[in-house]
């Protein structure tokens, strides 16, 4: 199909990831992660994050998030998240399933972003034995609504977590886009800001299939390999998940891809702002643009061949990826302009 901006995972595999898989595809290698590429990728994460984190790989974000959360709680514990959180809205109950019942406690947020006040309110609401005990907070960076938590915002959340005895998990399915947006060192927005576990998305960053789970507190990683295996997430030909990471972390493609996607989002937003009758729901902070469109306008845009989601973050969502083509952005602007003018 012609290029669409419905989701960043409509894009294919970026050349760096493809080449890394091809290079790993020579001869035989030990299975289940006992191969040189997996060792190299794990080391590349430790270098990038400047710490001795424990590194695991899963096939997708649902598994990475669910297994990470399950490893941080017992079945009678609960996990605090925002109402827009992917773990709540788009994982089919997998976090509850893989944790054997740990309940998600959902904060009603204004914009999909969790605050210290939300966490305090949920924890204070009930302290009796009849309620699942809060044990983990999960935040999405950037959020499903396209917002980026600043370093100070993450620090404020982790301070409350420490005070209340909660672990802090970060769903970073677009973590690279957040780093590109903030221009900060990956360590500054994760372990140095109090994040215990990060799910770092590779798929939306240009890989075929791979999400990394990083434990900054090694004690919490104990037996995580067994958890992955039991959940069907231990790749036997692991090198094809890990080789793209090794290459893209070493050569900087992870950040370049995210920068390109973020730049495309800003380019669309800048042009939308020039079109009378079109309104952004907010200026993009990462690789997503959310535009206010009436139902008839959405229909007219779809009739012109465009695919987009409207159930995430309100408005029509356009997501950009490593391969987003400026001429397709021009075409989208032209069609949007025509739709609002008619
Ligand atoms: C895409 C996405 C994921 C991962 O989804 P999978 O389809 O399971 O790979 C996780 N969290 C967020 C916020 C996402 O947008």
Short note summarizing the structure:
The protein has 2 domains: 14-253, Aspartate Aminotransferase, domain 2; 257-341, Alpha-Beta Complex (Aspartate Aminotransferase, domain 1). The chain contains 13 helices and 10 strands.
The helical percent reads 40-55%
Query: CATH fold name of the largest domain, please?
Result: Aspartate Aminotransferase, domain 2
| Bound compounds | pyridoxal-5'-phosphate
Rg from alpha-carbon coordinates: 20 Å
Task: Please list the strands of the largest sheet in the order they lie side by side.
Answer: 1-7-6-5-4-2-3
Describe the 3D structure:
With 342 residues, the chain is α/β, with parallel strands linked by helices. It has 2 domains: 14-253, Aspartate Aminotransferase, domain 2, CATH 3.40.640.10; 257-341, Alpha-Beta Complex (Aspartate Aminotransferase, domain 1). Helices cover 42% and strands 15% of the residues. The chain is built from 13 helices and 10 strands. The protein has helices at 15-24, 36-49, 61-72, 86-89, 94-98, 116-125, 151-164, 175-182, 224-230, 239-251, 253-272, 295-303, 326-341; strands at 54-58, 77-82, 103-107, 133-140, 167-172, 197-201, 211-215, 279-280, 288-292, 316-319. A 7-stranded mixed β-sheet has the order 1-7-6-5-4-2-3, sandwiched between helices. It has a 3-stranded antiparallel β-sheet with strand order 8-9-10. Helix 11 (253-272) runs parallel beside helix 13 (326-341). The model has no long low-confidence stretch (mean pLDDT 97).
């Amino acid at each position: 199909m012609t290029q669409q901006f419905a989701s960043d995972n409509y894009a294919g595999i970026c050349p760096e990831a493809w080449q890394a898989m091809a290079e790993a595809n020579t001869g035989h290698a030990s299975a289940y992660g006992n191969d040189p590429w997996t060792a190299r990728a794990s080391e590349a994460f430790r270098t990038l994050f400047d710490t001795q984190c424990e590194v695991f790989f899963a096939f997708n974000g649902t598994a990475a998030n669910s297994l990470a959360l399950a490893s941080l709680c017992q079945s009678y514990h609960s996990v605090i998240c925002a109402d827009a959180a992917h773990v709540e809205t788009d994982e089919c109950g997998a976090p509850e399933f893989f944790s054997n019942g740990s309940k998600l406690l959902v904060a009603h947020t204004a914009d999909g972003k969790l605050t210290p006040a939300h966490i305090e309110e949920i924890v204070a609401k009930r302290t009796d034995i009849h309620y699942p005990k809060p044990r983990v907070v999960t935040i999405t960076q950037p959020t499903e609504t396209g917002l980026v938590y600043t370093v100070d915002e993450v620090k404020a959340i982790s301070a409350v977590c420490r005070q209340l005895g909660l672990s802090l998990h970060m769903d970073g399915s677009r973590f690279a886009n957040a780093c590109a947006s903030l221009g900060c060192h990956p360590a500054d927005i994760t372990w140095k800001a109090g994040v215990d576990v990060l799910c770092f998305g590779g798929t939306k960053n240009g890989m075929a299939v791979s999400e990394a789970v990083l434990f900054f507190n090694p004690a919490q990683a104990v037996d995580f390999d067994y958890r992955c295996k039991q959940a069907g997430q231990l790749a036997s030909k692991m090198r094809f998940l890990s080789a793209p990471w090794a290459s893209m972390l070493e050569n900087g493609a992870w950040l370049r891809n995210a920068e390109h996607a973020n730049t495309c989002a800003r380019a669309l937003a800048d042009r939308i702002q020039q079109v009378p009758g079109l309104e952004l729901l907010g200026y993009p902070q990462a690789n997503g643009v959310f535009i206010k469109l009436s139902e008839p306008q959405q229909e007219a845009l779809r009739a012109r061949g465009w695919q987009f989601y409207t159930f995430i973050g309100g408005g029509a969502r356009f997501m950009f990826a490593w391969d987003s083509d400026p001429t397709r952005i021009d075409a989208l602007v032209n069609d949007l302009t025509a739709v609002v003018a008619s």
